[in-house]
Structure prediction request, 484 residues.
Amino acid sequence: MQISEDLIRNVVTQVLQEVRGRSANSTSGTISNVGRYGQFTCANQAVAAAREAFEKLRQRPMEDRKKAIEHIRRISIAQAVELGTMEMNETKIGRLAHKIGKLETLGRLAPGTEFLSTQAYSGDRGLAVIEHAPFGVIGAITPVTHSLPTITGNAVSMIAGGNTVVVNPHPSGRKVAAEGVRRFNQAIYEDIGIDNLICVITEPTLESASTIFRHRDVSLICVTGGPAVGRAALNSGKRAIVAGPGNPPVVVDETADLDRAARCIIQGAAFDNNLLCIAEKEVFVVASVFDKLMDAMQRAGAVRLNSSQIERLTAAAFHEVGEGSHKHLGPTKELLGQDASKLAAAAGVTVDPKTELVYGETESNHPFVSVEQMMPFVPFVRCRDVDQAIELAKYYEHGFRHTSIIHSRDVRNMTKMARALDTTLFIKNGPCMAGLGLGGEGYLSFSIAGPTGEGVTTPLTFTRERRCSLIDDLWILGGPGLQD
Ligand code: NAD
Prediction:
């Protein structure tokens, strides 16, 4: 009943918007997309509207891009509670306070037009200026784990680069995606008079994703998600920026500040119930400090499960997914992104509902180690020495080269791990989010492109390098021409 009401409301809104658009353009006879505020059921129409918006944006000064971005930042911050609550209610995974926090932080820290510096080379033969030009319309795919936050960060970076974007969101986060995009576009339109800088497919499917991937007016693809969408993007025949999956390991050696390590592991792994792709997923600890670290975790507020409780939890947390040779274990929907107290209940333990993280000792080949589980349970594996810890960390990172973390005061161990894992983010003595500028240096994006190598995406990621050369007597500063 609810679904059909939503569907009817959507159709009516679309028809009204189309009628408004037609009457606004009755003189030219074309159907305008103005007034849609980025809402589309048809991917082809969305791309056409984003193209129209791009053609307008490219005629405008940089100042208008800044104004558009300012509206996205303002709404993300001022309406974070409302939009964060909407995301929580729709996706039903993660933690409300962190959904709100993610929007506020992106509003403040997503990099904007300041990243677009121009380079110049001058000499006897003239001048060369290197600028950063837009691609045009970008096709973006976003995950359920951060639906509106990913769109917010992508939109800021992509518009800063002069592009427009069509988003195919995860179906389970589509409503908050559409509502956020509607608010962004409306504010931008009312200020600079361009609608649809960000377009969203309100009923996203694999078919609409495929239409976007193949559309001739889409110049670049940016996907954020697991392995399947990464493969699909790379097979699209277009240039693709792939922000793929991770399974971030943590190594703790005998020189680490164990209380600090415990606090950091809890902060990172418990954030949004471990939905972050950079979040601590498994910990490899040198045997001589293993028991002390387990005690430190308890002192820092995490609750330890024993081996039989872990096995009960494991039975509820994983199931087989995929077909044929692609069969593997994946996290169950019932526990993915749920509170630590719910995980504890599945293990047969009652804990304070405020508990942020549960943890326990496992073997290295345990599913909680090998699978990107996205749950606030962290397995700890006892290792002979730091070399074995690094070796296991490398193995269970699965070659994603996404994120890894070490707690150590030994620079040689840090260097050894950095070289062995070669991850896009490597964090020493901090929680995972320090790698994205939260409590560490640097800037923030929720699309970290490991497989295709762009790293933490910025406006520069979404630009083409363009060179303009001047070679004649008009070059008056350095060239010999005018003095001869
Ligand atoms: P998911 O892979 O299930 O879905 C991601 C998006 O891809 C969704 O919109 C989904 O509908 C779409 N999709 C899936 N298969 C597709 C296909 N064949 N063709 C087109 N679209 C397809 O992932 P999720 O559960 O939404 O998000 C969690 C995953 O995303 C984790 O693996 C996490 O590590 C990863 N992630 C990575 C980053 C990063 O910056 N690298 C950031 C956030 C999340």
Q: What stands out?
A: Residues 2-24 form the longest helix (23 residues). Residues 17-29 have pLDDT under 50 and may be disordered. The radius of gyration is 25 Å. The chain is about 40% helix and 20% strand.
